[in-house]
């Protein structure tokens, strides 16, 4: 968070400002469960205050945040004084600080270490949850408390007893008294499910699993805590009576497991500083696969007897340190919002950020998903924003920090901030950009022309169910587009074998075969051609229906879609009146094709770029028989339903054969069905056809009907 000019000039004033800021953040984070800044910003301010107090000892005060661990207990809970203070750990943020930690420990242990020996440490995960103290007497859980300020915590016994991971009675030979210390947390999947329930009920969502765990433990009604999926991992012991403490920390953790307490499995004894760094990198690379959040690892000198020799400094022990991962959230400036066009034409807003180091890398771009997300997060270009990056996840802008904006209406506000507006045209090709009713995304309608959609458009055009250009696969399309040889489907018909043979993995024979396949694709059907254009919402069935309805592409291109949809709606109302009078209904055009599809057709054909490509395809020789002429073929418009396994062809091939000879294919048997084409293992459709008296034919009978017995 940027400081005002001159704010750093007076160390005393700066320290006072930092204390106030950190105390406010502590209150928000630990008491209100509503953090306003990322951990990285908190850590930066805390370390700056530590440095100030080190360089100016007269500034250190007893009530400084550096002299205690967290926030005071929340009113409404009883207080619990810890018999042994629950201290926090110092943090290391780079390799050098870890090496310095090991060097100091080696120097302090001095004569206890054999010559040239390296210290054994126990490596554990640093869970992103809420620290707890569990007190067991005679093996029974008698109390539970939060860390609080390190000396006094909140009594959350009733709430902790609802956590199923916490045993109410220890197993085996439990000591007379043991105070177990660990972390309450929430698994990521449980957190997502809980937030989904919060959204469904219209309640406030939690910021992150740590925030959710803290809020759950601080419910005054234990039943509310019980309804929330909390977990617990033990990582140490405070007070102990009636049992001998194990010699090592690793042995202590194994003992806690034997007592029936949950302990994280990702723990290891590590010899020397290089082993510490190796453990850190291993855990960092695998953190995204863990079911819970961690923000680093913890190293503890393994031999417990050496802890007393090493002692404590200020607020933390010298025998342990937390090695934190790079921040997954950071604060930066939203410089601009640009539009990225995806391969299917979706327009996605992308944040251009002042570069910031977050999650182990420098981030300058982040996804904003869609226009609604920008409005929901109240983002303005020029805002100070929080950016999050977790593992390999694409960085995202989490929220703005509106409290850092200049006053609304001020000259500074107008000069620095401006709202974002989605463009009316595609930034790549200039075609119209549209947003369908009820949809979140905007789309470019120039599917045949837009370079951002070029590869996807070509692959769709060439697929078997469209123009069926065998041999035009993904790798070849990549080469053709990247080399600038093909920009639209019409360019395919200008390719020659010699040019293709020069491409990677394309010999003369393969090139000749592809040219032949492209040439064969010129003879198609109107239905295939319409499907090949890749019009949004126009699949194979809709394309066949349009071809049957219009019969000719020029008629289809000249259609007044709003007028046709209005005519259809009027006829549907008229048919409702006719049915009420017992009259025969009128024929409704485009039955089953609703306004979303007709809107998509209107937008696609109204785009001049798409019309140019269609004209180019026709000029290249792409042709088809009139769909109405096809209907007058050997099958004369008869309706077929196909069921079972045919001996000589697939059901899809049979459907293509029927349509090619003027028939239609439906999915369900009805009184309008002309024939049922049945193969082996025909089921309920065969029974239904017999009930209705519909003729049942086999594959040879179909061949005879279309006159291809000797084909």
Automatic annotation (TrEMBL):
Source organism: Quisquiliibacterium transsilvanicum
InterPro entries: BRCT_dom, BRCT_dom_sf, DisA/LigA_HHH, DNA_ligase, DNA_ligase_CS, DNAligase_adenylation, DNAligase_N, Hlx-hairpin-Hlx_DNA-bd_motif
GO CC, any one term: cytosol
Protein name: DNA ligase
Keyword flag Ligase: yes
Biological process (GO), any one: DNA repair
Family named by the database record: Belongs to the NAD-dependent DNA ligase family. LigA subfamily.
Stated role: DNA ligase that catalyzes the formation of phosphodiester linkages between 5'-phosphoryl and 3'-hydroxyl groups in double-stranded DNA using NAD as a coenzyme and as the energy source for the reaction. It is essential for DNA replication and repair of damaged DNA.
EC numbers for this chain: 6.5.1.2
